[in-house]
Design brief:
- The chain is mainly alpha-helical and 182 residues long.
- Among the domains are: 2-74; 137-182.
- It contains four helices and no strands.
- The chain has helices at residues 2-20, 26-44, 49-121, 125-181.
- Helix 1 (2-20) runs antiparallel to helix 2 (26-44) and helix 2 (26-44) runs antiparallel to helix 3.
- The chain is rod-shaped, with a radius of gyration of 57 Å.
- Mean pLDDT is 78; it is low at 14-24.
């Protein structure tokens, strides 16, 4: 009974020391804790059979607990690794997509800069002067056609007046001829 009491007295102190330790050394602390328990249990001796069975149960409980904890940690590490792997792959795909867009933008920029340089050097000024000359020719041709039409309108107006004069003369002659024939 005294060994059980001493075992219970030591237990809170051990738990406190485990909670104070860092999580990285928890596996080492668990192993040392198990080793202490085993040494205490073996030092208390096998005085009675009930104590041995409780020791075996306690030992098997702690071994199972330790195995579960290590399995849980491995599972967490694997999920973290998988998450990091997925995140890395997603970031890699995003980087590739952005690099291709950047290359396309660079090509477009270089094309636009070439066009700008040609425009500034006068490559397009020849085209502009050709367009200007063509527009001048077209406007000169339109002005000539307008002046020709104005001339035709003047001639038409003169012809109308001449036609009217001839009609009037013709009517006068017809009246004179009818008076003479009576």
């Amino acid at each position: 009974m005294s060994s059980l009491l001493s075992h219970n007295k030591d237990q809170p102190r051990i738990r406190k020391s485990l909670s104070d330790s860092c999580p990285a050394s928890s596996a080492a602390a668990t192993k040392s804790l198990r080793h202490e328990r085993l040494s205490r249990l073996s030092s208390s001796g096998s005085s009675d059979a009930s104590n041995d069975t409780s020791t075996n149960h306690a030992e098997s409980y702690f071994l199972r607990r330790e195995n579960r904890l290590s399995a849980r940690k491995k599972a967490e590490e694997e999920t973290l690794n998988n998450d990091y792997k997925k995140m890395y792959e997603k970031a890699l795909a995003t980087n590739q997509r952005l690099k291709s867009r950047l290359e396309t933008s660079k090509q477009e920029l270089s094309m636009i800069q070439d066009q700008l340089q040609r425009a500034q050097k006068g490559g397009t000024s020849d085209c502009a002067s050709d367009l200007l000359k063509a527009e001048e020719k077209e406007s000169w041709g339109i002005k000539k056609r307008i002046s020709d039409m104005e001339e035709q309108l003047k001639v038409k107006a003169e012809l109308k007046m001449e036609n009217q004069r001839l009609k009037d003369e013709n009517g006068a002659l017809i009246r004179v001829i009818t008076k003479l024939s009576k």
